[in-house]
Amino acid sequence: MCRRYLLEWLDSLITVSLNPRKTNLAIITEQQIEAATIKIAGERDKLQSLLKNHVFGLTEEKQIELFIKQYHSALIILLDQASQNHESMPNKRTTLRHLSSEVINCLDELLFCIESRFSTYLPLDERVPLTYLSIIQKELKQRIKKLETKLSSQTIDHRVKVVVLSYLNSFLRPDKKSSPITFHEMSYVKELLYELELIECDVKSHMYSPLDRLLIYLNFNSSEYMNCFTQSIADKINAYENLAERMDYLLFHFKEFNQLHRKAETALHPQQNDLKQELTNWFTQEVFYLEKKLHFSIVPFQDKTASPKEVMPVKKDKSKVLCVLSTDQAGIILRAADELKILIARSLNEVFKTIVPHLSTPYKEELSYDSMRSKSYAAEERDKEIAIETLEKIIEKIRSY
Fold first, then answer.
1. Residue 157 has what pLDDT?
2. Cβ atoms of 384 and 332 closer than 8 Å
């Protein structure tokens, strides 16, 4: 096993040669700057190769994990020092500042190499050091700004664009109340941004847009995106008046959706449900719902000549139970009760169809069981929090009995 420190030259350059606390930067000649700038490019490629070769030369998992963690930590420390050096560089020495920028870029590429190729050996749930995070945020800020310009000039679903850009910008300006940014989140943002920079959203060679296919591939399991996706499909389906046409269109969408690829072990929110699985559940429920309508519908959808008087009115049940939760919050609880087999029926649709007509909210007398069921698949974080708080109150109440 080779015990040579692979970053020796780069470490010396950053901690000594370009460190204003240890070196008088004024005595560094232009020839020295030029030589170091040329060497940086070759050093970057050489180090990437050495790191990979060294990993593949190890035989034990613990040795690989230790090696990756050591060099990842060392690169972060060097990046912190290089950033401090750059802040102290005299503005008049443009060549020196350029060399300093090249050093930072070199370190960033080496970190990306480790984080993308050997992520399984890194503690991705750990918090990103604030200095390192600040450097990454500055770098990504310019790239996100360019991406916004690119997306604004292309034909793209505005709702999806807003969701994606809001997420990327939230990484630049995290909420003080939110959890600290982890290495996993930073790695996901880097990969998402890299892929977004490559795709052309105007290309229409598939039923689903390049942006949708990318988000599904990277398991962008945001509730906001799920809601946009399902609403987009629902809007297209509802444009057809004929029920059979709706079913054909839905099944075709479902077939194309099943053929979309998904990157293994990748997720925006690892603790939440898989995006493709959630959308598959939504498609399945929609197909089941339309099948029931086709077979058991009392009023034929095809009869456009029928007058409103011919439709039998449904008698309103005045003895409804008032639910103080919103329809979205109630839908989350009903869906969970069905999936845990607390409520047992032929299907989730049957659960909603049986219970919801007997409920009302302070804001709405007549509730749509179909709408409540659909929205339960794209619940907002705030609605989930309120539903959880409500269930916790129920638990406390039961304990007091």
1. 82
2. yes
